Fold this sequence. Notes:
By secondary structure, this protein is of the alpha/beta class. Helix content is 63%, strand content 10%. It has helices spanning 5-8, 12-44, 49-97, 101-105, 109-133, 136-151, 153-200, 202-207, 211-264, 269-310, 374-379, 404-409, 425-429, 438-447, 451-456, 474-487, 504-517, 553-559, 561-576; strands spanning 333-340, 351-358, 363-367, 389-394, 397-398, 411-414, 423-424, 464-465, 492-496, 522-527, 538-543, 546-551. The strands form 3 sheets. It has a 6-stranded mixed β-sheet with strand order 6-9-10-3-11-12. A 4-stranded antiparallel β-sheet has the order 2-1-4-5, with no helix packed on it. Strand 9 (492-496), helix 17 (504-517) and strand 10 form a beta-alpha-beta unit. The longest helix is centred in the middle third of the chain and has 54 residues, at 211-264. The two termini are 67 Å apart.
Amino acid sequence: MKRYGKYVKPYIRYFVLGPICMIVEVLGEILLPFLMSLIINQGIAQHNMAKIAGLGGAMIAMALVMALGGIGGAYFASHAAISFGADLRLDLFQKVQKFSFQNIDAFSTGSLVTRLTNDITQVQNIIMMILRTCLRAPGMLLGALIMAFMMNAGLAVIILIVIPLLGLAIFFLMRVAFPRFEIMQRKLDRLNSGIQETLVNVRVIKSFVRGEYEEEKFRKLNEDLCSSSIYAVKIAICSMPVMMLAMNITTMAVVWFGGNMIIAGSMPVGDLTAFTTYIVQILMSLMMLAMVFLNSSRALASIKRINEVLDTVIDLTDEKAKEKGAVVERGAVEFSHVDFRYYKDSPEWVLQDISLKILPGQTVGIIGPTGCGKTSLVSLIPRLYDFDHGAVLVDGIDVREYSLRHLRDGVGMVLQKNVLFSGDIMENLRWGDPNATDEQVREAAGHAQADAFVRSFPDGYGTELGQGGSNVSGGQKQRLCIARALLKKPRILILDDSTSAVDTATEAKIREAFQTTLCQTTKIIIAQRISSVMEADQIFVMEAGRIVGRGTHEELMKTCREYREIYDSQMNQEVTA
């Protein structure tokens, strides 16, 4: 728990003032029954109106002070807990942002969402509860116990019998509840993952008329969470009636024995009234502690899940970087006998013995069947993953010796899955360069053949995009993503099948713009269409994680059987069409 001290320190005054204000309220609650007993014994019994008025005024003043203490305690506790949760959530989000792709693969998206929201809320709630009860419940318990013994030690012995029994019940609650809440949080992970997948892919679901299937899948996930939640809260459901039963039995015993004492003349009526109130306060404080411990079980399960994220070792860092100040200047790329696999215990290699050289400013094409390792290969250049053997060099420096920021600043990448964010088009394009002028944004969009269709929208570059760019077509989304990458002005530009949804005429214009505006930039184009790479300075043909051919289009037509097969199949299709 030492790691959480830094979230307490900035708000220490709230963590201190909250419990102090609660103590003010507790002192009032302890004294009020005593004053009431004095009113009954010395005022009502003796018909002393002055005594009743004086003690009544004191009780009213005390009630007002208690109200202020209660308001202050609630405010300071809420401020401390919410601020703690906000800072923890920010740190957790920043940690996730540093994750490599491999780290992210270890957690489902739904699980990370749950940890950033629900789990932190559970921790926040228990902090608020503890601050409001850490001094209130023990203070009330101790104060009421002292007052009860002062009034009648013999009658107070009843309490000493009940307290150990309730203590054992609280211990049992903690022991049983913790694993149940842990299971419940995992079920919530699955539900969040299902909701996110359904909402993101709602258009696909509708196009395949799979709404009923998704509803049934959600129903099962929802019922699974419901049953695990009921299983977890059964403890709380049972605990409250049991504790209320214990409190009522204890109160009945006190009234029985106390009533006999009043009849015998050994105890005033007012003392029994106050004593009964103290018994209720003692038992209520024990119930408060029980609820704190019960909710602590769920919070501890959440803390364990939060710690799993915070304790994750990030496998891509700058710790071993020798050239942290180096930046990508020329854009030369070299692979030397590179082997790579996603899972380090997997016997199958994704890339094997990859060796290639790309000169600064060259246009390079990479082609091959689906799953042959094209995307995996280019992902090693900006260190989205680390290779297992060999070396990947950019400008003659091992990519592991750059700082991640400087390396990735020099590499622009348009991925297979084009992603746009909520906000307007201008905001999305400025991801490439936050300081770009409107004219620079429009120029980049023009080179990507996006300016014309953007201007056709009623709001132009101020057009709001739906989640993931859902209100633009696939081809428009690809061109916006290319424009965003161009605005970055990278020394190396990687296009991973990023014009697949664009017609051949538009694609040709984009390639032409690359040759004129990005003549100094190294361009690596992954494509399924052979026409996309035919004019490249070099073409690499891949199959099953290996390079099986390299050269220009003319050279490969003569020397590479796989390339000729791709060419013949695509050209025949065009002729047939």
